[in-house]
Write a structure and sequence with these properties.
The chain has 629 residues and is of the alpha+beta class. The protein has four domains: 315 residues, ATPase, nucleotide binding domain (Nucleotidyltransferase, domain 5); 63 residues, Actin, Chain A, domain 4; 122 residues, Substrate Binding Domain Of DNAk, Chain A, domain 1 (Sandwich); 89 residues, Substrate Binding Domain Of Dnak, Chain:A, Domain 2, CATH 1.20.1270.10. It is built from 16 helices and 28 strands. A hairpin with a 4-residue loop joins β1 and β2.
Length: 629
């Protein structure tokens, strides 16, 4: 017989336990909430429904269902049953080339992604909030107390918009977010604990510092992170990925294969969803079997494991390319990787495991369930952040996945925080005005690796006003970029002589387009030489425009007094020629013309300087200046 435990309202029934904190993996296909209990992280489950919660929300006419209860409506009320909403979070309609592939009715004539349901228009943030609320309620029921805080995981390659949207969903659900934690880092936390508890045959000297690759392939996203594990420190050396590649894409390829094989077509939202579910089931069965059968609309086809491998090979190869780039960024080779941690349900696919093991030539670690490892790691971190383990010295060092910077004159990108910089981080740089008397400056924050703003992704714009009118180049504008532990960006600008200040917390309403994140780095490498040339040309064009503007201002002020008519005409024609050459895009000619015009105007500049000195000395004697000394 056991004694009845009694606890105060709102407190944990478990003795000696502090505040209640949870780790939440908000997944594309399934979600999970975990908590540290009796010293270790455990999934919080429902006796009847299990611990994994399908990331599905059904908007009925009279009620809203979440999780397994919502899956009952997948085929009977398809348009009101939302799945894989994680793929929509932080994005706009223009981010998807073809919305017709989804079985939903989207709001027309707007950039916002909102879906018509029985309960009205629903955004991805609202649907995500329902899932988060369901998870927290489950945790509170099982732990018998109010949740004091949560660590919510996000793909490492989620951009600022997607991270902010996830945090907004948590806010709507009434959750105090302790931190947004990158999924691969969360997996590394759980993996580290697993090594400490279960032991390893690796010598202590090697175990003290290990290089780990975390390969995370879920239902809708892919991440690869290279981490150094050393005495409780999880340092992310490099990260890469694709926020629009996952198991859903495997399912889509299976659907396409089946329709091609049978000559069929899907004619309704219900048929699309039905075939997708059969494709997903076939994929899962092939993780255990050599072949399986897909039946749909009276026809059946057999799909083998080898056929699946052939179908998805281009996508798996795509992940391998990203892995290769991440290793290069981390400045390590495959033979230095001690192990590869496999995360996400899609890593159960045999072809994925084979490709990853062949590429890294290192053991694959899946000791902890790939579907649960992320939430378990998040729970460990939540327990530390809430203050239950003050003696815990675990330190997480995540990184910025893509460079952050701003636009300078001429549409150039000036990088302030470079990719793979450890966060949290704050960096500042000084800029100045471009024109005389300029009293305002527009700050345009961008994200990407290219040299020109037009090739990067716009994050936010704001204006710094109230700059004292000065000559061009005299003002000192300090611009600071700050990335918090959640990976969210804030930008501030200050005119240092007056203290005039403006700032913005970057909350863009859209995310990167399909495959855009994954291709940004690739483009930066492929176009590196062209980008350097384009930047050099643009810089010289800016220099030419500045020189032309300064000379024209000087001619207007002192041309008649200091130059003859012929001299004015020669300089004016030279300035016109300079502007003309600047538009042709010939860098060498432009460089020569800048030198020519600068030399041509030297005599005029000298006369202006002499004039200024004479005016300054007018009415004074040399003795006055000597006595002042």
């Amino acid at each position: 017989m056991s004694l009845l435990q009694i606890s105060e309202p709102g407190q944990s029934p478990e003795p000696h336990q502090g505040k209640l904190a949870v780790g939440i993996d908000l997944g594309t296909s399934n979600s999970l909430v975990c908590s540290v209990r009796r010293g270790g992280p455990v999934p919080i489950s429902d006796d009847e429904l299990g611990d994994l919660v399908p990331s599905v929300v059904h908007y009925g006419k009279d009620a809203i269902h979440v999780g397994r209860a919502a899956t009952e409506y997948l085929l009977t009320d398809t348009q009101n049953t939302l799945t894989s909403v994680k793929r929509f979070v932080g994005k706009n309609q223009s981010d998807f080339p073809d919305l017709s592939v989804f079985p939903y009715r989207f709001e027309a004539n707007t950039e916002n992604l909102k879906i018509y349901t029985n309960q009205g228009l629903v955004s991805p943030v609202e649907a995500s909030s329902r899932i988060l609320n369901y998870l927290v309620e489950r945790a509170e029921n099982q732990l018998r107390g109010d949740i004091d805080g949560a660590v919510i995981t996000v793909p490492a390659y989620f951009d600022d918009a997607q991270r902010q949207a996830t945090k907004d969903a948590a806010t709507q659900a009434g959750i105090k977010v302790l931190r947004l934690l990158n999924e691969p880092t969360a997996a590394a936390v759980a993996y580290g604990l697993d090594v400490e508890q279960s032991g390893t045959d690796v010598p202590d000297q090697e175990a003290a510092e290990r290089l780990i690759a975390v390969y995370d392939l879920g239902g809708g996203t892919f991440d690869i992170s290279i981490l150094r594990l050393h005495r409780g420190v999880f340092e992310v050396l490099a990260t890469g990925g694709d926020s629009a590649l996952g198991g859903d894409d495997f399912d889509a390829l299976i659907c396409q294969w089946f329709l091609t094989e049978t000559g069929q077509q899907t004619e309704s939202a219900e048929e699309i969803r039905a075939l997708q579910l059969r494709a997903r089931r076939a994929k899962e069965e092939l993780a255990l079997l050599q072949q399986t059968q897909i039946e749909f609309k009276g026809q059946a086809r057999t799909l083998s494991r080898d056929q699946l491998a052939e179908l998805i090979d281009p996508l798996v190869q795509k992940t391998v390319k990203v892995c290769r780039r991440a290793l290069r960024d981390a400045e390590v080779s495959t033979d230095q990787i001690d192990a590869v941690v496999m995360v996400g349900g899609s890593t159960r696919v045999a072809a994925v495991q084979a490709k990853v093991e062949a590429f890294f030539d290192a053991p694959l670690k899946s000791d902890i369930d790939p579907d649960r490892v992320v939430a378990l790691g998040a729970a460990i971190q939540a327990d530390i952040l809430i203050g239950n383990k003050n003696d815990q010295d675990m330190l997480l060092l995540d990184v910025v996945p893509l460079s952050l910077g701003l636009e300078t004159v001429g549409g150039l990108t000036e990088k302030i925080i470079h990719r793979n910089t450890t966060i949290p981080v704050a960096r500042a740089q000084e800029f100045t005005t471009y024109k005389d008397g300029q009293t305002a400056m527009q700050i345009h924050a961008v994200q990407g690796e290219r040299e020109l703003v037009q090739d990067c992704r716009s994050l936010a714009r704001f204006e710094l006003t109230g700059i004292p009118p000065m000559v061009a180049g005299a003002a000192r504008i300090k611009v600071q970029f700050q990335v918090d532990p959640d990976g969210l960006l804030s930008v501030s600008a200050e005119e240092t002589t007056t203290g005039v200040r403006a700032e913005v917390e970057v909350k863009p309403s859209y995310g990167l387009q399909e495959d855009q994140i994954a291709t940004m780095l690739k483009d930066s490498f492929e176009h590196a030489t062209d980008d350097v040339a384009a930047r050099s040309l643009r810089e010289h064009q800016v220099e030419a425009e500045g020189l032309a503007f300064a000379i024209e201002a000087a001619l207007k002020a002192d041309g008649l007094a200091l130059l003859s008519g012929d001299e004015q005409e020669v300089i004016t024609l030279a300035v016109d020629q300079l502007r003309s050459i600047a538009t042709t895009g010939n860098l060498r000619e432009l460089q020569c013309e800048i030198q020519h015009v600068s030399k041509l105007s030297e005599s005029f500049a000298t006369r202006r300087m002499d004039k200024s000195v004479r005016e300054a000395l007018a009415g004074h004697t040399v003795d006055e200046f000597e006595s002042a000394d």
